[in-house]
Specification:
Chain lengths: 248, 691
Amino acid sequence: MTLRYRIRWTKVARTRFISARDLTSVWERSLRRADLPIAYSEGFTPHAKVSFPDALPVGVSSTGEYAELTFAAPIAPASDLAALSAALPAGMDITTYLEVPDGAPKLAKMLRVTLWELAWPPVDQTELTALLTTRSEELLAADHAEVIRHRPDGDRTIDVRPAVLALAATTRPGTNTRDAHTVLRAVLRNDGPTVRPTDLHAALSRGDVAEPHAVLRRVQGAHVPEGVRDALGGEVELLVPDVDAEAA
Amino acid sequence: MLGTAPASLAPITPARGQRAPYRRPGANAQPVPSCWSALEPLLPRVRKPAQYVGGEHNQRITAWDAVQTRWLLCYPDTYEIGQPNQGIQILYELLNERSTAMAERAYAPWTDLEELQRQHGIPTFSLETHRPLWAFDVFGVTLPHELGHTNLLNLLDLGAVPHRSADRTVEDPIVLVGGHAAFNPEPLAPFIDAAVMGDGEQVTLELDEVVRRFKLEREPGGPLSEQDDAARHELLRRIAAVEGVYVPAFYTARYHDDGRLSRTVATEPGVPALVPKRTIQDLEAWPYPRQQIVPLTETVHERFSVEIFRGCTRGCRFCQAGMITRPVRERRPETVRQLVEEGVADTGFNEVGLLSLSSADHSAIGPIARELADTYEGSTTSLSLPSTRVDAFNVTLSNELARNGRRTGLTFAPEAGSERLRAVINKMVSEEDLLRTAETAFAEGWRHIKLYFMVGLPTETDEDVLAIAQLGIRVYEVARRYGRGNKLTLSVGGFVPKPHTPFQWAAQDPPEEIRRKLSLIRHAIKEHRGIKVRTNDPEEGVIEGLLARGDRRVAAVVERAWQLGARFDGWHEMPTLQLWRRALAETGVALDWYAYRERDQREALPWDHLDSGLDADWLWEDWQDAQSEQQLDDCRWSPCYDCGVCPGLSIEHDTGYTGGFALPVLPSGLGGSTGGSTELPSTPERYASGP
């Protein structure tokens, strides 16, 4: 009987400002509130066995977070994980779970790529979508796309190009014409040197595109021609959002 | 640049004169705009943004139009420091339980966000719904110490509320302070509307009722609907009529020609000449806070805390908290247990704190600790207990609480190095006690002892200061006998005299003198590399000293320092002392006169009209006793010495000791215990026999 579960969870709204450092205790306290028998590490300062494949930058939203939970005793996953989801702060929800069979590949190995979504406010959307489409084609056609990443400990030059598998700029119509805005979706590799949405923006912007006002990690998993297949649930999120379906 | 968000958002703060509609009771209120949509885009640009978002477990959100009174409760420091504060959480829960009231919380934004808020016109906001300060009826601010004063002024100003009480009108919130530093609110007199003295539970609910009735009378057709200026005065009069509430505007300070205070007198008919503190007799009737906030980001104390008793009668002469919170009122062991068990399950915290001024002194602490340790044995829930006692019992208790964890560090507070000076401050610990306690601790596997001391105490000589080092060296010798890796830390702070204590007349040491004394200690232990010395910057006590015993003339300095940019005066990162020195120079206020000068009995003190319950003559006698090194026993287990608190309140200590019960543990004293049993005592009869 397995005691390990993999889950997909969201980190949106206010919870997008919780740092990776604080997240451990948020999960541990939620597990305690839901009264689930999470396993603890050995040693003097035991930690709840909740592991995250990587850290999401503070301020970035996500519907594509994953974690692996190890329990000390069997649970009833459907009801217990729903209870855990309810105990998590508003904005954090468990959307999928999967029992982990013995010998399963590591979770990080299943999260090969990320589908990112960058969104701009409802201004200049026609021109912006056109510009980003052109810039995306140029980037994909190039061998290198170097940008400078500014950090407190000094600037670093990053080549964005190797990480980029696919790009698509779209205008999302919104609920009324005033809401229509530009969305850029990007499939980025998770292996190799880390390339963040901010680096991608730097590569496309060339100084004349404002920073996106919202960044979302949509889903992680395997790259397929239409987009990205969720590592746990298996459904495919499209590279080019189906705006008609979203509207409906 | 393409995709740039429109720069200007609709203004959040309406002009003065147009805010009344938002403040009306119930469904008559105009909806109040939230600051969230303006704030959210700025948060990625500031440090630790999670402190500004709210959304914690156990926050309470109430519809604006569902209630008649709206409170914004504030701890005037960062969320990280202020969130765990128990006082705010108690009042938050009490007010939110009332169907006609709501309370939200606010903390001071760090300077990075403040700058952005001012740029973007975002006022001081509540955490829960990000509503602006100016829309609330009461801004209730706790002042646990003096170093939040500039933050208070800044929060008002940022919240679009005039920082001077005289400039506020009936459309502004009432600015109410409470907490320990509110026992001398004179340096804030021009800025606050009212100060609450003592326990806040009952008085807060009474004030809420006053505000509620007033608001209903202000509604169209009501008796106060027409008059604006007179209405605010009427509200302040009604607030001043609540027992334990001080309205500074109704009093004036008179001075002698030489600058000394002559007295503070009431100028408004009907207000009390002496404002008494409030005291709740039965802690059992107030089992709060039950549903404690669980932070989403790091704070200084992340645990479920239960106050096991309020008050302390150890009589340490430097300790303001011990003096102003008398008498002792204990919570029953079964209530403590219930609060802990329900609270741990509800919050998910993995640490429990049993709080009080000296938790090992609860008459049933042994059984409380043992039962909780039993309950959580083998779990990941740990127990902690702040205690300043120096005795073997404290080690036994700590062993019990550490069943689940490591025996790492134990803290003891002898406070002074020499036996003589400990008699002066009435900290009844002998060197023999301390060494025996250290022996017990290291023998039972503890690895690290931390000792708390102060320098700058009254009558202190260099010999007394060096005694800290000598005592440290002796304890360290004990430590080394039980393991080469064992450690000792000496934590040494500078003493700041506080109002309503026997040391309120004493001179404070200037920072240069504190620094000299600290270096004496460092020099004396420099051969002993295993002893670590921790000190604060001596300069930090300067502002605290000025404000602790300042009078109304010091308010000009507070205002000027704030205008010059002083904020977060308690933070190392914010060296504001230069700003304060400039403010002192510009306002002509003499720091030396306020901080470094000894007072005599005839001089009026700025808090003489505020009654902490302590008899003025008793305080003076105790100050004289201090100077002649006379000790005074704890009145929980020795005869009453008439400090004045109990008869004044017509209440008494509420402990297992009352009713003739024999002591489970003796105070560690110079005159008594000889080691003796380190077994945990059993439940006192009064508790064992049930309610």
